Amino acid sequence: xxxxxxxxxxxxxxxxxxxxxxxxxxxxxxxxxxxxxxxxxxxxxxxxxxxxxxxxxxxxxxxxxxxxxxxxxxxxxxxxxxxxxxxxxxxxxxxxxxxxxxxxxxxxxxxxxxxxxxxxxxxxxxxxxxxxxxxxxxxxxxxxxxxxxxxxxxxxxxxxxxxxxxxxxxxxxxxxxxxxxxxxxxxxxxxxxxxxxxxxxxxxxxxxxxxxxxxxxxxxxxxxxxxxxxxxxxxxxxxxxxxxxxxxxxxxxxxxxxxxxxxxxxxxxxxxxxxxxxxxxxxxxxxxxxxxxxxxxxxxxxxxxxxxxxxxxxxxxxxxxxxxxxxxxxxxxxxxxxxxxxxxxxxxxxxxxxxxxxxxxxxxxxxxxxxxxxxxxxxxxxxxxxxxxxxxxxxx
Length: 396
Known about the structure:
Blueprint (H helix, E strand, L loop, with lengths): L1 E8 L3 E9 L3 E9 L6 E7 L2 E7 L4 H14 L9 E8 L10 E2 L2 H9 L8 H14 L4 E6 L9 H4 L6 H4 L10 H15 L7 E7 L3 E7 L2 E5 L22 H8 L6 H10 L2 H6 L5 H9 L3 H25 L4 E5 H6 L1 H9 L20 E2 L8 E4 L4 H12 L1
Parallel strand pairs: 1-6, 6-8, 9-12, 12-14
Antiparallel strand pairs: 1-2, 2-3, 3-4, 4-5, 7-8, 9-10, 10-11, 13-14
Helix pairs in contact: 1-3, 7-8, 10-11, 11-13
């Protein structure tokens, strides 16, 4: 028996889950937020308990030390030696990494070099890896890539209609993201439907603060909404999703606050989406509260959000020439009955219908479609950390 820790490092956060393997038993989980800021928040959940403390945490190395010390302090482990493997979520693997890999210095340098493909994610992912390597240098360390699942896409799907030299010389293409989530929920959907995944056509909708939709044909990703970076696709919490690229030079020319393309891309990543349109929040719960107040900007933000998700599902119904099921997952996908209802109502022509009572489910797996729905509508909570832990075990 061994203990494996799955790590999802953000620019100012570190989310983790500790497993007893191969039983896949969750021993503890937690998150450290506001790393590098005052009043960092440390949360640990274990044995039905929740411990929270507020500290000042300077960087990811200090965060990892606090995480490991907490595991001992709360008697979750008695020694660091009990942890035999650590798996790190890495968003962008580019064309360098088509599957999970053991991390050595060469692999880590490549991960850092791919930061342009996921500027909000890869630097933080690499910081988490380096922090663990400094404190536990001999542990089995594995990188699990969001993009790996999408490497089955074909050239006609992943290439952009621009001169091919930009692909051959600069590797500009669609890479996708959220691959571990799409992989996991597709396999769980097959189990739920009682059919082999190799026979199914699925559209998996990962709808959280980041949003991506994937067309899954017989277990493989054939198209996905995120692109060269995770900025592409439907509208998201703070990200714009797809826009006309001519907007970028136009704004540089006309808005003195946006001095160059990098400033516009930063705005599109961090100040757009639900937050930008509503002026209220990037959190759908706040937007729905705005709907209740009939706040016109909240209503507009919500309507744009639903519109974009419907359009991508419609595209992928065309790509797959129909689907057996639509699968909602991630924060909003798992906990957003109103959003699910409005998305599916707008697709009723395709023969999919939601049962209002079943749709009230939150955070648990279920079939929320009516018995006569030609396309099943499922809610399946994602478990990216479990996929990471499984890959650590496989590569040990």
